[in-house]
Amino acid sequence: MFRKILVANRGEIAVRVMRTCKVMGIATVAVYSAADKAALHVLEADEAVFIGESEPQASYLRIDRIIEAARKTGAEAIHPGYGFLSERAPFAKACEDAGIVFIGPSSGVIEQLGDKLVARALMQSRGVPVTPGVLLEGTDPEEAKKAVAAVGYPVLIKAAAGGGGKGMRIVERPEDFDTACKQAASEAMAAFGDSRVYVEKYIAQPRHIEFQILADKYGHAIHLLERECSIQRRYQKIIEETPSPILDQALRARMGEAAVQVVRATGYVNAGTVEFLLDGQTRDFYFLEVNTRLQVEHPVTEAVTGLDLVRLQIEIAAGQPLTLQQQDIRAQGHAFECRIYAEDPAHGFAPSPGKIRQIHLPQGPGIRHDIGVYAEVEVPVYYDPILAKLIVHGPTREAARERMIEALRQYAVLGIQTPVAYLIDVMQHEAFGRGELSTHFLKDHFSNWQPSQDHVDLACIAYVLDEMFPVANNAASARSGGEGVPPSPWQTLGSWRMNE
Amino acid sequence: MQYKVKVGEETHEVLVKKREDGGFVMQVGDRSYQVEATRLPDRRLSALVDGKRHQFGVISDPSEKTVFFRGQQYTLQDASRRRGRGAGGDQAHVTPPMPGVIVRILVKEGQQVKKNQELLVMSAMKMETTLYAPREAIVQKILVKEGEQVNAGQHLVDFADAPKQEESEGKAA
């Protein structure tokens, strides 16, 4: 087993990876940018290496500096987390060349699956259904129109080279196709340096269902059931759950078997996620793409399976055989995850960086927090605004949903805006309660959402009480991270000052 | 003791009477509440209101308090200290809500602007945000350049009053 691992990431995922390393007795190395000198992941690590200025291009995306940091500290393996370099084949390659273990699949597999068209063709060759579609690359416009008509309107245009919603467009009518296609191609060019677009059949009530897979170096592969991530805002998942309310055992088994085909087709090793689109009306499913890394929403899988996915990733990377068999994997109860971003849902979800003044976290049975911040820390403007994830587990979907709603009501991040009020309203929506989900859910039900204020009298009472009961002293405020927030040296430092 | 608290556009009067046992009777508008309260070590307020236990998160700034309660957020101001104008009614400058980079400046010095007119576009967290005029005014001075890094609270634009104040909104006087 490794003695030391470098975590090439920041925020809650870096902290989460380090927690597992600690359990396994593995030393950890953090890397950090100028904006992250006091970040929680730095305080959590045994060692920390400064890798550059705040902009991601100058730090967290600098392959050379991260490899250098691993060399300097003697880290034998690198965990990439998600985002940043996690799905960049050149990074995995640089690790391989430097003799450092990349905790993930090989650079060759990342490259193969990173190209959506290659991935699609691979899966198709294994008998996995894909949505009818056509690749357009500099094709004659009339030919293109014919090919698209064969796919059947409405269609979805997307960049062949990348994800994240860039270049994506829905076209309802043939007469709108040319303009949309040109725009998509130019966006794809700007974002990925590749103007090829892919046009596929658009499904009216799509549900996003993904399967967690695990494969060891010896060809043994299993799946860890599904996650439903249909609650999305502009292709960004915000609430995830498992099991999916729409899958029955037979469909689950079929989709799981399809997911594991990725391993057979590519020689995939380590954890990965195979994403499918499920037609909510026909229950037909189609392969979408493979994410060759840990997912943001992996904790819901951990909640129902009782497994530690990061631990399994590390064991597989270290060459250990995966001893779990498919029949060992059973879901216990139901889990939800809500993503807590620094954003303002009342104002178009505008980013809301700044100083966190207080954090109060819910406690109770079945509640897990993955957090990358603490009270008094400045949320930087440079990175993805995810602050934390709230994961709730319960014996049934309804029990887990009730727990999540109450947990969100107790959740308070003071000083910046978060979507907590919005998440409560989504979780409480009747259609959500019935499991009637689709990737259009938020657009259909929450386009004009505004926060409600049901307790104005109590807020007035709190105002007056705040005047009458002033915050006692600095010692209290220095320890005020709220229960559940790990005490940081900064907070401890506050108490020392008081005790001088 | 009496407080006048403004929430949004509405002003609420809170009448506070001390009970002999250390508790309070608080009248908010025409409703009366029995209140007992304590400050928790984590800075929250814990209150028993008509026999129900509640926890409030409160942050206190010079001009307002923000109360967090059951996932909802309330901004409250001391209405007795206000000088008769609506929100932003006498604001003399524009400041960014968050640190970021100025992308575009859409006004010139000396220009007269209307309330809610676009002034600047800034970029923060990979997204563009527009800053608007808080009131009708004249742009007296622009204190930043395009491409400049700015911090939350920094003055970006200074205003002078427009020659004829036609503001009809928000006058309480």
Fold and architecture overview:
The complex is a heterodimer of chains A (500) and B (173). Chain A starts with a strand and ends with a helix. Chain A has 500 residues and is an alpha+beta fold. Residues 474-500 of chain A have low confidence and may be disordered. Chain A is 36% helix and 24% strand. Chain B starts with a strand and ends in a 12-residue tail after the last strand. In chain B, the strands form three sheets. Chain B has an eight-stranded antiparallel beta barrel. A four-stranded antiparallel beta sheet of chain B has the order 9-16-14-11, with no helix packed on it. Chain B has a four-stranded antiparallel beta sheet with strand order 13-12-10-15, with no helix packed on it. Chain B has no helices and 16 strands. Chain B has two domains: 2-81, Glycoprotein, Type 4 Pilin; 93-161, RNA polymerase II/Efflux pump adaptor protein, barrel-sandwich hybrid domain (OB fold (Dihydrolipoamide Acetyltransferase, E2P), Beta Barrel), CATH 2.40.50. Chain B is elongated and about 60 Å long. At the A-B interface, strand 17, helix 12, helix 13 and helix 16 of A face strand 1, strand 2, strand 4, strand 5 and strand 6 of B.
Helical residues, percent of chain B: under 10%
**Structural class, from helix and strand content of chain A?**
alpha+beta
- Looking at CATH, the homologous superfamily of the largest domain in chain A is ATP-grasp fold, B domain
What is the CA–CA distance across the termini of chain A?
Answer: 44 Å
The oligomerization state is heterodimer
What proportion strand of chain A? 15-25%
Going by CATH, the architecture of the largest domain in chain B would be 2-Layer Sandwich
Beta-strand level of the residues of chain B, as a percent range?
A: over 45%
